[in-house]
Amino acid sequence: MTGVNSAAYELTSGHWLPTGEAAYRRILGAIGEAKKTLRFEMYIFRADDTGRRFLAALQSAAHRGVQVQVLIDGFGSHQLPADFWATLRANGGEVRVFNPFTWSSFSFRDHRKLVIVDDAIAFVGGFNIGDEYHGDGIARGWRDLGAEVRDSARVIPLAAAFDAMYRAYDLRHRLLHRIHHPLRPAGPATPPTRPTVLLTSPRLIGNQFRRELLHALGQAQNVQLMFGYFLPDFRLRRALHRVVRQGGRVELMLAGRTDVPLAQVAARALYGSLLKRGIKIWEYQPQILHAKLAIVDDAAFVGSSNLDTRSFGINYELMVRSEGAATVSDARKIFASDRTRCVEITLPEWRRSQTWLTRLRGLGARILITRIDPWLARRQLRSFS
After folding, report:
1. Model confidence pLDDT, tens digit, residues 68-119
2. Contact, 214 vs 204, CB < 8 A?
3. Which of 32, 204, 307, 310 has the fewest beta carbons closer than 10 A?
């Protein structure tokens, strides 16, 4: 079985980072060429071979005079040794830990993955920094992907989003009300367009990605969703049903192997209602699926957000909308290639798997994820209002 790389897809847009291995190569190369500024935001940063490789690159950038700012999540990266960043700080780099774990605010996590170099190039996606993400998604490493962004209409708002999180990292000064919508680049007035940088914060309402995805699904005909964690709410499921009812096609690529069994049990409990309405479901087999990609007609969304309750209303997340024939065509090539490594889930097969114990587990998992987790978050949210 051959590895996955951009050449295998014959990608033409230069936008996609089709694997964690490809993403790491491009990000490390950009860090090595950084001249002025480097913003680095990550949910998980491990002290393994991959993590130390990135640490060395960040240290080298700081040593040559680049302004290095690192923001990691206090829960996702809690296993780092206390002195892990000492050399980087000694070379002038700055490191902040978002919301160190406490029982009073543990729900709210910075799940974003974002690297911005010299305000000119940004990298977004699902990959964290760790050995498990470093691979082709087939023979080794989780199946993940991301995007390389070079246009100022997206890079400038992404930089502004990072700066806002970096200032408010300690959850003081009512953080939950200080993360604003992304800024539009300065310049001549242009006709209103759909936003290209979509942010999520723990307000539990008004999620930008969810809103834009629902809008795109309104008249959609060709929908392909690749998500490692999938538990959409009723409105999103209804929107997917409507696409098929109106003569369109919906394909879901979900996790056959997972690092969060509870999420998989909850997702599989929904399969029946989706399959009955003609939605195709595929489960990726070779490795753990961790990608976050939505392709809806002539637009593609990529970033850190899953299609579940936590991403839609509790975590800080970001997604980038990309358009253009070449970019969307390349995204569909990636999806089509990965589909050859999936098993299709059929309605008869799903029904055979639904024993009383399976149904009970599915119900319990959905209650925990869609009811109890948001309830705890709302209780903690009150202390910041």
Report:
1. 999 999 999 999 999 999 999 999 999 999 988 877 778 889 999 999 999 9
2. no
3. 32
Rg (CA), the chain: 20
Q: Count how many Cα atoms sit within 13 Å of the Cα of residue 32 in the half-sphere of its side chain.
A: 9
Rounded Cα–Cα distance for residues 290 and 118 (Å): 28
Which residue do the tokens 């000119």 mark? Answer: 120
Tokens of 321: 């909308």
C-alpha 135/C-alpha 356 separation (Å) is: 38
Beta bridge partners of 146: 17, 125
Closest CA to 60 of 28, 82, 97, 83: 28
**What per-residue string of b and e applies to 248-278 under the rule 16 or more CB within 10 Å gives b?**
bebbbbbbbebebeebbbbbbbbbbebbebe
Residues in Cβ contact with 191 at an 8 Å cutoff, skipping those fewer than 6 apart: none
Confidence (pTM): 0.92
**CATH number of the structural domain 10-384:** 3.30.870.10
